[in-house]
Here is the input.
Amino acid sequence: MKIEWNEDLAVGVEYIDEQHKELFRRFNRLLEACSKGSGTKEIGSLLFFLDEYVRIHFNDEEKLQVANSFPEYPAHREQHRIFINKLDDFKNEMQTGGATLSLTIATNRMLIDWLLNHIAKMDKKIGEFISQNT
Ligand SMILES: [Fe+2]
Here is the structure.
């Protein structure tokens, strides 16, 4: 199984769309590892990657929203904060309990929810708002 980025998910701001594509690629790498039975080997490097990457990505997205006076910015920023908190929990779990199957499944779920709900719905609205108001 693979979930692909497609044009329907485009925000229309190139650097943001490129960052989203990278998140899809990384998620697919995890799925592929899981299908080969090596998901727990992949999880550490994925969490490490996300920890750095999403902070930059969220910051870029939030700056874009502020620059365009996007009205849903506070609610959007809150979703980013919740994601970072969850990621911190997972990282702590990794450090204390190691790369377990349950951690791998929980990360998998968090990411699929993020790609299908946050990126496909909330992020998409930023693009729609910008195109209607500029
Ligand atoms: Fe976002």
